User: What shape does this take?
Amino acid sequence: MMQSYYEATARERLAAIVDAGSLREILPPPARTLSPHLMALDLPTAFDDGVIIGSATLAGLPILAAAQEGGFMGGAVGEVHGAKIAGLLARAVATRVAGVVLLLETGGVRLQEANAGLIAVSEIIRAICATRVAGIPVVAAIGGQYGCFGGMGIAASCCGTVVMSEEGRLGLSGPEVIETAHGVDEFDSRDRALVWRTVGGKHRYLLGDAQVLVDDRLDAFRDALAAALRAGGRLDLAALEREHAMLARRLDAYGTCRDAEEIWRAMGIEAPQDVPMLPTDVLVAACKSRRAA
Amino acid sequence: MERLAFRFDGGVPAASARQPCIVGVVASGNLEVLIEPSASDSACAIEINTAAHGFRATWQAVMADFFARHPIAGVRISINDAGATPAIVSLRLDQAFEAYAGDGAP
Amino acid sequence: MDWRDVARRLFPDGHDIVADGDLLSGAGRCGDATFAVVGSTNHAEAGVEIALAMARLVLATMRDHAGRPILFLVDTSGQRLRHRDELLGINRCMAHLAKCVEVARARGHRVVALVYDQALSGGFLASGMMADVCAALPEAEIRVMNLPAMARVTRQPEERLRALAATSPVFAPGAINYVRMGAIDALWDGDLAAHLLAALRDAAPDDVRRDAGLARGGRALAAPIAARAAVE
Assistant: This one.
């Protein structure tokens, strides 16, 4: 039985995370929801357009879930893919499930669908916010090869809880895009250690943009997502005031830091150069009192 | 993309009603295989959408080998291929068949 | 397009909008309504500072002016493409702004946006595209990404993407394509104040963009697929 979240396909992740046998797929492959835009460009299509959506239970709680397949078009969001997720979030409000679980692995807007992809991502962002305002928790997991970038990096941070593994990456602009715009001295996209210090799971956890850091194991993700659903977390003015204060403090404290190690040192972590080597549980224990909320 | 279709007659239907199954991912060098029960058609009908052009004879051989291993009737097999090797194609077909006709969940 | 000209046309009864660097803020009177104005100028690069500054303005509106409608004036060249902004979590700052807009909407603030020059995805998703109603001036352009970066990421030659952008509504940057696809409500010309008042009157909290895209023929599948996902 496969253990690694990173190595698993979207279907395998979803099957492993929800209660055994509870998944009922919505718009499954026989529905053949292919992308007309990819067909117009004579590119390969997938029957589910790269995202699995369905209803299930998780630790006994009724949920809706979506899992993006990074292997297909880098998990990027096109018109159909995006509509599946937005429709799922609307369904969550209508059926008052215990929560929505999003297994995100995506480069963001599917550039081959350009305008349609951008609007689709925007509709996901609005739907996540609206679903949470309606009182339904929305939680995200990020731990795959393609990370979570582009407009979907904004969508992820609209969720109430983000669970990441060290292997995961979360950001807005990919390192390649930054390097194309401003050169290799601005961001060397082939410096893997630099990439992970900047957008990787450990840095996001220390910064407070991933609320939970887990090992690269399907059962670890499952347990963390179940706990996140139970914890809830309202989206209201008070929560936004707290978030604003935290982000303003972040800019004050770390706005002139040139690298993540400087930030970690400023947080009070004694040996910041060792952070990439630390096992997850050691890191979590070591910074219990230090990392931002 | 190139579209191909093959039919194989003389197979044996699955023992009982089956759920559609899908295996694989449409990633470079990979493919997805969807296998569904066909209520109207008793053949093993295969349709392929492939990014690799000009390999009809290879696909014919791979499909014929698959049907020889698993002579199944009354199914529709649909493939989206992004340039997988014949070995990978055969592997996915066998995985799809196992998921469809085996005792385990898809 | 100069924001001052746009502001004059939107608020003939007066406004006190000021520019602080690339950030626009203030209030404008239009008919009986006073709008809180949040915006950008100079094709602003949207980095962590401007995202938080915009959020601060939305939060202040919620705290100090219950029910006041909000207008986003959009002119952005997209998110700031710097290592520093990624390091500090620009995606989180943008999400914070988006959430502020959503909570404002839930608390009864109507949110309108006007793209008066250009808008690129990362600078637009958390502001203009969160509005109840997003409009654009006829000459406005909306893009997902600059062509060189798009060429690199898609591994397509720039010339091919340029050709697509010239001929395909899915790729063309003119705001009219976004109207057809439902994301832009309408192009505003002439009496901007009248357009603004009509938008305020017609604005509603539900996201109607998929239905508009279907009705106008620019996005045939989004609405039916989402509807099926919601009920099947």
